[in-house]
Write a structure and sequence with these properties.
The structure holds three protein chains of three kinds. Chain A has one domain: MetI-like fold. Helices cover about 70% and strands about 0% of the residues of chain A. Chain A contains 13 helices and three strands. Chain A has a two-stranded antiparallel ribbon with strand order 2-3. The longest helix of chain A is centred in the first third of the chain and has 34 residues. The two termini of chain A are about 30 Å apart. By secondary structure, chain B is an alpha+beta fold. In chain B, the strands form four sheets. A six-stranded mixed β-sheet of chain B has the order 6-7-8-3-9-10, with helices on both faces. In chain C, helix 3 packs across helix 8, helix 6 crosses helix 8 and helix 7 packs antiparallel against helix 8. Chain C has eleven helices and one strand; from the N terminus they run αααβαααααααα. Classes of the chains: A mainly alpha, B alpha+beta, C mainly alpha.
Chain lengths: ~290, ~350, ~260
């Protein structure tokens, strides 16, 4: 018998205000969007209450599908880049001296406490034609003409990877930190080389952290419109800025709503997929 | 002092944790509530503390019905299993907590805190934080925090559970002395039979929400009433006895026949303590023979595990000087006398 | 033999990685004090871009809006989030799974979708975009984060402390004010600071729900950056940086101090 009995209640008073708030301001808006996605608009861009599935059939056109695929591809690239650059750093952090770890971790996190918009802007000032990087490259003579470093796919990748890096580092670090160091000793004792230990012991045992990190990077990356907007210069159309434009300049709300519904469904499917994958491998995935 | 009358408590509808429980505790007594985990002993303690309300029955303290008096108004204090020291208060603030609530003056509080810290040998610790204390010190603070209110009854929920073996022995003695010194009624919950026997004036043995047996440690050890009690308090050998037709007091059991005068039952189950079993040089004087399976040297005694006829396991404890070495595989000849047979209730 | 993760290579990588993380921010701050408008040539130290900000009425209004929104939404989100976290932790009830799911919705849904869904709701209800709509939206997406911080604090919270206090004579109200609140306080304050930080940083959702008179600072910066790089944005960004870093560091300290218990 538990020392303090947890009472079975119909619906505790404490939970009521928060639940009501969330129902009103997340549940209800999403239903409104769902409804909106089946409506039409007139030639002035006003929403009219004529139900149609036209928005969804439009979604299936090749150029629209391409936008979704391109966004997913970009998110995938960003996730992989975050893993590639974040994993060694997390490994370094987790193997550093115990008493240094909190400080080192803080050192890595602090830049990300600042606004992502501010950090994106910082990169723009560095990469712009009259920016620091170009002036550096010209002064060392690697180039005579300033290069166009901004407004392309690479710039978006850089901005996004920089922005999402900690979401990969933190969960991977957490899982690496829990790794029992005697496992490494045991593997060495059994004749494994350093590289084999990394590939066969450390990497598989940090899978839970990698999966958490992948969810935390991939999904928000799908919805971040201002980085592609500012660093891609509106030339690269992704789902996020596509939706944003339907609601701002294009005044095509019903289609924007349909795109949003598609994005939600896609997100949920991906999360379910990641979670199933992690369940099969028996790894604990923490999203908080 | 404390009376529990027909107490019943259920969680989730009809899952009874306590059923029709009756108990009287007299003033100044040290009572141990002993039982396996899940037998309802902690619930019983919480009912007395007022942290739970019984579904049926009444609770009396000092002749007053307190069944529906909330915890904060009962003259009872508790030492919790994990001590439940308030982490955001110093030792002194923890101890002063109840006195402040009862609006004692600053000077009164200070003297009371000093006095009780003295009593638990923690003078000078009032500005320490709970996280800076060892397990034993935490326990003393928990004790002081409860005792400073001069409760009529002190409840202790597994007070030794968080301590290591050596410290436990020491604290058992200290707690016992403190109780004698203060003359306050102590009710202690424990699952450790040694602890209960060593500390308490009376032991109440609980089984599945009911009182199995209550008595002094000696009564409980020497005269367990049921097989449950016999199994829980100390170790025992169990046999089934059946009256032999024609014989006055002659009974047949698994390993032979024995005359047990004064028993009026046709058949019964009985327990025999390992230390009641005697060793014989030859088969003639013995009651049965046993094949030795293991021998454990315990200092003053040796404990033998063996197998008798029909594969019945026998546990016996002999003085280690009484007989030359017994080895695994030996056959030994054993007996016990009628006086050592503890007749159990059905 | 050195282990792979003790090789000097990994150490060097770590140093470069940390430099890479700080470089853009440092550049930004340094050039905010530049006397001329260039982002490459540093001529002399000057505070003129900061002075320019102080005379920019629109920026000041946006900053005021942001502070008001952050304070109010952090307050409401923390109260609702704390109650929710405590309720979810203390009781078992029917529909708990559903509430838990609802609770994660604002965390999972892409921010763009959150933003447009608020816009669609306010539009349907005929509510004009104002500071109120911004605050309501911010409360919503801050709520789960505030609750999560309190929840983390609850993991070490021992309910028998409340039993002990009642046993020592405290009424239910006293237990709440003297035990529950003080013990949970670092978590609650940490949650509030985190909520304020998130609110101050938000661009995407505010972009959709702020009207012409209720622009927040990040939304203002967003439109300024779109128009082009200017040193006064550096100055403004530096100020934002100082503000959010302070808040986030305080939140971090509070979350860690709670482990001392």
């Amino acid at each position: 018998m538990s020392l303090f009995s947890k009472i079975n209640r119909v619906f505790p008073f404490l939970v009521q205000p928060g639940t009501l708030w969330l129902l009103l301001f997340t549940g209800l808006p999403l239903l409104v969007v769902l409804n909106l996605s089946f409506l039409s608009r007139n030639s002035y861009g006003r929403v009219v209450y004529e139900y149609t599935i036209a928005n969804y059939t439009r979604l299936l056109q090749w150029e629209e599908l391409l936008i979704i695929l391109r966004s997913m591809w970009l998110s995938l690239e960003v996730t992989l880049l975050c893993l590639l650059f974040g994993y060694p750093l997390a490994l370094f952090l987790s193997r550093a001296a115990r008493r240094l770890q909190p400080f080192l971790l803080l050192l890595v996190i602090v830049p990300f406490w600042t606004s992502s918009l501010v950090r994106t802007y910082a990169w723009i000032t560095i990469l712009q034609t009259e920016g620091l990087l170009n002036s550096f490259l010209m002064s060392v003579g690697w180039t005579s003409e300033p290069l166009t470093l901004l407004y392309n796919h690479g710039a978006i990748l850089l901005g996004m990877t920089y922005n999402f890096l900690p979401f990969m580092i933190l969960p991977v670090y957490a899982s690496l930190q829990k790794l029992d160091p005697t496992l490494i000793d045991a593997a060495r004792d059994l004749g494994a080389s350093s590289l084999q230990v990394l590939l066969r012991i450390i990497l598989p045992l940090s899978k839970g952290g990698i999966i958490s990190g992948a969810i935390l990077v991939f999904i928000p990356a799908l919805g971040y419109f201002f980085i592609p907007d500012l660093m891609g210069g509106n030339r690269v159309i992704l789902v996020s800025n596509h939706i944003s434009l339907r609601f701002t300049q294009a005044r095509d709300w019903p289609y924007g709503a349909a795109l949003s519904v598609a994005l939600i469904v896609l997100t949920l499917l991906l999360i379910a997929m990641f979670l199933r994958w992690s369940k099969r491998s028996g790894e604990k995935v923490e999203l908080a | 002092m404390i009376g529990l009358r027909h107490i019943a408590k259920a969680y989730r509808g009809d899952e009874f944790v306590i059923r029709d429980f009756n108990l009287e505790v007299s003033a100044g007594e040290f009572l141990a509530l002993l039982g396996p985990s899940g037998c309802g002993k902690t619930t019983l303690l919480r009912l007395i503390a007022g942290l739970e309300t019984p579904d049926r029955g009444e609770i009396l303290i000092d002749g007053r019905d307190v069944t529906h008096v909330p915890a904060e108004q009962r003259p009872v204090n508790t030492v919790f299993q994990n001590y439940a020291l308030f982490p955001h208060m110093t030792v002194g603030q923890n101890i002063a907590f109840a006195l402040k609530i009862r609006k004692f003056s600053k000077i009164e509080i200070q003297t009371a805190v000093q006095e009780i810290l003295n009593k638990v040998h923690l003078s000078g610790y009032e500005n320490r934080w709970p996280r800076e204390l060892s397990g034993g010190q935490k326990q003393r603070v928990a004790l002081a925090r409860a005792l400073v209110n001069k409760p009529k009854v002190l409840l202790l929920d597994e007070p030794m559970a968080a301590l290591d073996e050596n410290l436990r022995r020491k604290m058992q003695l200290e707690l016992k002395e403190l109780q004698r010194d203060l003359g306050i009624t102590f009710i202690m919950v424990t699952h450790d039979q040694d602890e209960a026997l060593a500390m308490a004036d009376r032991v109440a043995l609980l089984n599945a929400g009911s009182l199995e047996q209550i008595g002094t440690p000696a009564e409980l050890y020497n005269h367990p009433r049921s097989e449950f009690a016999a199994r829980f308090v100390g170790e025992n050998n169990f046999f089934n006895f059946e009256k032999v037709a024609g014989g006055m007091y002659l009974y047949q059991f698994e390993l032979g026949r024995l005359e047990i005068p004064g028993v009026r039952k046709e058949n019964f189950r009985a327990a025999v303590r390992p230390e009641s079993i005697k060793l014989h040089p030859t088969a003639e004087t013995a009651l049965f023979s046993v094949q030795v399976q293991s021998v454990i040297f315990k200092g003053a005694t040796i404990v033998m595990n063996g197998r008798a006829a029909q594969g019945i396991a026998i546990l016996a404890e002999f003085s280690s000087t009484a007989w030359p070495a017994i080895r695994e595989g030996d056959t030994v000849y054993l007996s016990f006398s009628a006086g050592d047979v503890i007749v159990l209730e059905d | 033999m050195r282990e792979l993760w003790r090789q000097p290579g990994l150490f060097t990588y770590a140093i470069f990685a940390v430099l890479f993380l700080y470089l853009p921010i440092l550049v930004l701050v340094v050039y905010s004090f530049n006397e001329n408008a260039s982002q490459t040539q540093f001529s002399a130290f000057s505070l003129k871009w900061y002075a320019a900000l102080l005379s920019n009425e629109r920026v000041l209004t946006a900053a005021g809006n942001s502070l008001l929104v952050a304070a109010l939404s952090a307050l409401v989100a923390t109260v609702l989030g704390t109650l929710l976290a405590v309720g979810m932790w203390r009781y078992k009830f029917r529909g708990q799974q559903a509430v838990r799911f609802l609770f994660f919705v604002p965390v999972i849904i892409p921010e763009v979708v959150m933003g447009i869904s608020f816009l669609a709701l306010f539009n349907l209800l005929g509510v004009r975009l104002s500071l109120l709509t911004v605050i309501i939206s911010h409360i919503t997406f801050c709520l789960p984060f505030a609750a999560l911080v309190v929840q983390a604090r609850l993991e070490d919270y021992d309910l028998s402390l409340e039993d002990a206090a009642r046993d020592l004579g405290a009424s239910r109200f006293t237990v709440f004010t003297r035990i529950t609140l003080p013990v949970l306080w670092p978590g609650i304050a940490g949650g509030a600071l985190l909520a304020a930080t998130i609110s101050l940083d938000d661009v995407i959702i505010s972009f959709f729900v702020s009207g012409p008179t209720s622009t927040t600072l990040p939304v203002k910066i967003f439109s300024m950056v779109r128009a082009g790089v200017k040193p006064d944005i550096n100055a403004l960004s530096t100020l934002m940086l100082v503000g959010t870093l302070t808040l986030a560091y305080m939140a971090h300290r509070l979350r860690n101090s709670s482990r001392n218990f």
